[in-house]
Specification:
With 117 residues, this protein is mainly alpha-helical. The protein contains 5 helices and 2 strands; from the N terminus they run H-H-H-H-H-E-E. The protein has a two-stranded antiparallel ribbon.
Length: 117
């Protein structure tokens, strides 16, 4: 159910982006930007999980969407939609928010290989 929820967010964000008429080139360039948070893992799993979760929580995109709508700022709205779409795709693929113990432990279950081979 949580993966379907992510797919719904992805579809809604892409549809809204299309309706907004923003640049698809910008969409392509910015879509993977939240994944720079992986660099936090260079400082260890707890810092990495915190950085990843900050970039992969819906709090940031919703704040941007609200600001973009209320302030009538289409560029802010577009960035919020791109960010939400990224998170939606991650959730649809099973990549959830991380626990501080290790990268593969997420709120959606374990990711990655479980066998030693």
């Amino acid at each position: 159910m949580l993966r379907l929820e992510g797919l719904a967010v992805l579809a809604a964000a892409v549809a809204a982006y299309q309706y907004l008429g923003a640049s698809w080139g910008a969409f392509a360039m910015l879509f993977l930007l939240p994944d720079l948070s992986f660099l936090g893992y260079l400082a260890g799993p707890r810092v990495g999980a915190a950085a990843y979760n900050a970039a992969h929580s819906y709090i940031g995109p919703v704040a941007l969407l609200t600001s973009g709508l209320v302030g009538e700022r289409p560029a802010v709205l577009a960035f919020g939609l791109i960010w939400a779409a990224h998170i939606g795709l991650d959730r649809a693929l099973g990549y959830g928010l991380k626990y501080g113990s290790e990268f593969g432990a997420t709120h959606l279950g374990r990711i990655g290989r479980t066998d030693p081979w």
